[in-house]
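Sharing a chain and its predicted structure for anyone who wants a worked example. Both blocks are below, sequence first, tokens second.
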Amino acid sequence: MSLAQLLRIKPQATSVTLLPGSPPHLTSLDFVNAQDGWAGGQGVILATSDGGATWGRQYLGAGNVTGFSFLSPTLGYAASNSGLLKTTNGVTWSRVDRQSLYQVQFLNSAEGFALEGQSLRYPASHKLVATSDGGESWRPLAIAAVSQACFFGAEVGIATFPNSFGGTLEVERTTDGGANWTTVFSIKGPSPEQLQCTPDGGAWLVAASEASMSQQSYTVFRSADQGASWKPVVAVSTAGAGPAPGAAAGVAKGPGSSPGPLSALSATTATMAGVCAACNEGNVAFSSTTDGGSIWTSPTAAIPVQTAAPATLDMVTAKEGWLLSSPGTGGGQSEIRKTTDGGASWRTVLHVVPAAPQLFTAFVSSRVGYGLGTAGDPVALLKSLNGGTSWQPAGLMPQAANPPTAFAAAQGGRLFVAVDGAVYVGTRGGTRWSLAHTTGLSSASAISFATPKAGCATSGYGPGETDYATRDGGTTWRRAELQGVPAAVCAVSLADPALAKVAMQLIHRLAPTKVQSQGYFLSTVAAGAGSLWIALSGFPTSRLYILAPGQPAHVAAWPDNRLNIASLTPIGPSEAFITTYDGRVLVTHDAGRHWKQIS
């Protein structure tokens, strides 16, 4: 097939089927007292009744649970992008409606407010809605899209608006249930990060500046009169991000060099977390006040966060609380820590680790695959014998100081991994490893096999990279005749030069390295069983081209808009596996028309 014929093929739509609650990355946390708490995330709600010592799953289904509102330990609501969930016994959950909600606040069993929709913008933008029938129906309030909002009762509430850095942060207030709003506070420059109301009429607002040099200056403002007036109570200025918003001179210095989550108990009591991204991969420090912000106390200890950023801080007293660290859509694991001394010390009470590999996968058949890297262990080697449904440890990788840069498997059974500037060859299922003694082949950034014998590796990065080829399954390597191409294209060129030529023409036409005139960039190129899969990312749609000897080319949509894809492993012209950074494994059996999660 010629390039002209290939470009005339219209991409077919693709569907993606994901398993609910797998992996259960957590994004929300709410404790109603020192014993009863709930954590929500991707299709899952977990609960504890002993202060976090043990956790059980109460809900598994559709939707990403992003916020809770509890009126008692038995009556509560959960906001998700697939509708409002409700529990009347604190154990089982039922769906109230299908309204997509981000946060929810109920005043009683009938009246409540919510932020509609799951915003992908920054700062977030949501429609503010209200209900008077327990969430069965919602009505919009007379206010433009807001960033955050909270209410002190059915009549009085406050809201912040999404503004770009350099604009004006405004707080508006209503005293008639949302019919009319008045600006009560404005400040030039920052963006609203967090807004919290307390039952006694207190309100706390975190305003942050634009980030720079792993720093983000911030100021915490406080109100003691239901949001009618505001004053700064703690601030952090940094060399990288500039002065704290509002030039808050004379106030206490906050923790960290960037804002973390805030937890407010009352108009006088609150705890602020601060992040130091440059400190040991992200330390978290804390400061607390019990007098409305005049005096802040800070424990000397700081906890390291190496796998996920702190997302939610929930204190039930000035001393006791929980911190949720969440990886969002990236790699890592969710973790909940508990403190009983105001943040001076923390212990982990829940650690959620995805069961699938998170860095690379390499399938050698429809059933057998190898995976590399898990949360907290980038050189863990896993093996699946059931097509990626489950994974078990498989051998030990060579000791390494850095994460691997490339991973591949030849269908003959050999494994290849590039780590610490060297390439190792694994045999006997990864139980025995030896250094690949090949002149020039080092610091491999990609390794690919098109057939059990034909493979290529790219050594080095940037203009100085060199391609090496093997025709005997990796026993010997020589400088490849085809240079400056993806390793997968180089591998295919050993078996089918004509197919590789069309692939390079396609890449240069749609995703040129210098001028991206078509709006696409090369996402990934992978080879398997003689086939070549080329994924191009772009706006408004991404494309997946599948080329195979003697078969018509196929073009499908590439689902990178729904998945944070780590690796692609084809094992033929119609079957391939995807691994995502959040621990999912998906498979297609029809050349990318349908992808189904299997792990």
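Comments welcome. Residues 501 and 591 are 21 Å apart (CA to CA).
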